Structures are given as structure tokens and as C-alpha cells.
């Protein structure tokens, strides 16, 4: 959609993806990506870690099941999606705001690892399954 903030994050999963199902049967996987910038200290010639960023992410439907089956804690991943901000009230009545990533694309980073890709088949006509459905495309939306 126009006006959404799209970001790409590269980092490591802090835990295995948590796969759950909605009451309607849709799968959702939640996970956190830790991304730490590294900078070269020119005086010492050593690399130094910056402040880590922890970004909570979610992916839905068959994509969620694939992510939960394929990725583990410590996996280095590349995630691309829509940055979302939401607010909520805690049990103590405090207002909190969180920033999360609704993932559109997710995969292993192959800089320090290898991966074998296995194409999944899309089941058809299965009642209550979390089958893949295409994203709606606005007809009048410009291509860029």
C-alpha cells in the first residue's frame, strides 16, 4: 500500500519462531530478530558492536508454517516487510507503544550458511487449513 514504511532487517532470531493458530484456523508465527551494527574503530583497527535492535516480527498462513519449520534460534535471516506501530495499556494502566514488522519476505542469510530449498505444494479445497492466498492488488496503484 502507498504510504507504508517498508524496511529490510538482517539479524539473528532470538528464539525459535512461535507458531500459533487463530480461532479461524489461520497460522501465525511470531519471532524476534536481533540486529547489531558493527563499526570499525580506525584507531585500534578492531570491530566494535553497536547497540542491538530487537524487532518483533509476525508472518501469517502457510508462510508462518514454513518459517516455523525452517528457522531456529540463532538463524541469521533477512526479513522485509511493513513497519507497524501500535499502542496498548498494561495491566497497571500504563500506555505502551511498540513497533513491529509484518513480514512479507523472509529467508535465511546465506553469507555464513547454506540452505536447501524445498518447494511446498499448495493444498486445494482443504477446509480450515492455512493455505496460501495471494495478496490483493489495487488496480489503480502505480507500479512504483
Q: Would you give an account of this structure?
A:
- There is one protein chain.
- The protein has 144 residues and is mainly beta.
- It contains one helix and eight strands.
- It has one helix at 61-70, and strands at 6-13, 18-21, 27-35, 38-41, 46-49, 53-60, 76-89, 95-108.
- The strands form two sheets. Strands 1-3-6-8-7 form a five-stranded mixed barrel. It has a two-stranded antiparallel sheet with strand order 4-5.
- Strand 7 (76-89) and strand 8 form a beta hairpin.
- The chain is globular.
Question: How is the topology of this model organized?
Answer:
Elements: E1 6-13, E2 18-21, E3 27-35, E4 38-41, E5 46-49, E6 53-60, H1 61-70, E7 76-89, E8 95-108
Parallel strand pairs: 6-8
Antiparallel strand pairs: 1-3, 1-7, 2-3, 3-6, 4-5, 7-8
Order of helices and strands: EEEEEEHEE
Query: What would you call the shape?
Result: globular
Strand runs, count: 8
What is the residue-mean pLDDT, rounded to a whole number? 85
The major sheet is characterized as: 5 strands, mixed, barrel
Strand order of the main beta sheet, please?
Answer: 1-3-6-8-7
Note the gap between the termini: 11 Å
Features:
two-stranded antiparallel sheet; 144 residues; 8 strands; mainly beta; 7% helix; single chain
Précis, in short:
This protein is mainly beta.
Amino acid at each position: 500500500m502507498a504510504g507504508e514504511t517498508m524496511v529490510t532487517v538482517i539479524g539473528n532470531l532470538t528464539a525459535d519462531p512461535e507458531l500459533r493458530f487463530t480461532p479461524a484456523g489461520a497460522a501465525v508465527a511470531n519471532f524476534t530478530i536481533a540486529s547489531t551494527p558493527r563499526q570499525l574503530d580506525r584507531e585500534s583497527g578492531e570491530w566494535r558492536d553497536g547497540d542491538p535492535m530487537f524487532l518483533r516480527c509476525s508472518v501469517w498462513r502457510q508462510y508462518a508454517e514454513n518459517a516455523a519449520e525452517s528457522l531456529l534460534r540463532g538463524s541469521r535471516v533477512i526479513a522485509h516487510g511493513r513497519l507497524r506501530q501500535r499502542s496498548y495499556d498494561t495491566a497497571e494502566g500504563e500506555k505502551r507503544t511498540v513497533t513491529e514488522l509484518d513480514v512479507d519476505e523472509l529467508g535465511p542469510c546465506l553469507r555464513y550458511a547454506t540452505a536447501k530449498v524445498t518447494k511446498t505444494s499448495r493444498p486445494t479445497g482443504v477446509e480450515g487449513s492455512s493455505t496460501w492466498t495471494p495478496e490483493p492488488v489495487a488496480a489503480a496503484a502505480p507500479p512504483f
